[in-house]
């Protein structure tokens, strides 16, 4: 049997997706038995130039994690698209921007100022900031260009499959790998490794009528481990998030953060959550509503924690 | 900015506000032509997605109008609108959309004059604020 050629690449991401692939533990040997890894910066020593030399379409599957935040990410996204028959947007960042895309609330200059000038631990009296080209005695040095907007992978190149999660869970990765090996893949453009129903459908907690008088942040209370977290006033994104994660956060008594993304047919996860919250607040007057909502400190950042690249409104880049 | 004609999307509930707009029409009340009306069955049907999409596709302002509290054809649809509206405003503000660009009004079927007044006033507000898209994305903002 001819072995599959597999590439795993990270763009603007934390590396958690790569670790999640390793989390299949000993099954990684099964993966190695059916697939040759041709690029995986976190685990193997292949170089970009090795991939450059490959013929178009010669990689069978590329799991691309991370958002597209700079010109290096973009270059690699385009190159891997050309070389791969199947390109999978792997993890929330590649699917919809993820945590890095929260930067889209700010303009490029604000971010650079904050990081290279304003943070208390920064000492930078000359105001040095990264520039794509800088001249030194030895020649010209190049850095990738920092874009003004964090993109999801499909805003840059065509994507064949979407696999959400921050990170996708090892069980789901293993299922998808098996599907790839057997060639038993859904139609192009599908979301894989996630369910069609919301996390609430999987959640084992007791659910009753929701009437919320006050919202809490996770550090303010220790929630009852058997009751619905939303009913206890914690902002759990379960109602608007795809299941498939195995309810890991819920099992650890933490509310869902929404990393598996919107349900099928939903455009905006955050917008749906505004509706959900509106319906369960127990208030009749303007004052009561305002008071309860004041408990939600950063609504946009919470509701769009993983979806800012694909949000309908573009934050500072309107 | 000169000759700026705002585009305003109005989501009017079938039972009260749309009838109120109708009354304004048959009463020959004058009001600016900037409002594009979308009839919905209830103001509670106005998914925040609609509002985001309106701005995304070029609206400069969005009006949501429904029955007065207590008058909802579906008992409490407008209460849901009322409870979610402050949160919608807060999120929009974080996205950089000024609060004044979105307005929630209760307009009954008998309030044609109120409807005309709201549209007149709102159009002026938006005219003063200027277009929603002030500038095209800056260099590096878009690739591909």
UniProtKB/TrEMBL annotation, chain A:
GO terms for molecular function: iron-sulfur cluster binding; oxidoreductase activity. Keywords: Oxidoreductase. Residues 14-179 form the NADH:ubiquinone oxidoreductase-like 20kDa subunit domain. It comes from the Bacteria. InterPro entries: Hydrogenase_assoc-protein, NADH_UbQ_OxRdtase-like_20kDa, NiFe_Hase_small_N_sf. The keyword Oxidoreductase applies. The keyword Nucleotide-binding does not apply. PANTHER family: COENZYME F420-REDUCING HYDROGENASE, GAMMA SUBUNIT (PTHR42845), F420-NON-REDUCING HYDROGENASE VHU SUBUNIT G (PTHR42845:SF2). This is F420-non-reducing hydrogenase subunit G.
TrEMBL record, chain B:
It holds the Pfam family FlpD. It comes from the Bacteria. The keyword Lipid biosynthesis does not apply. Signal peptide: none annotated. Keywords: Iron, Iron-sulfur, Metal-binding, Oxidoreductase. One of its GO terms (molecular function) is iron-sulfur cluster binding. The keyword Secreted does not apply. Residues 8-130 form the F420-non-reducing hydrogenase iron-sulfur subunit D domain. This is F420-non-reducing hydrogenase subunit D. It comes from Desulfoscipio geothermicus DSM 3669.
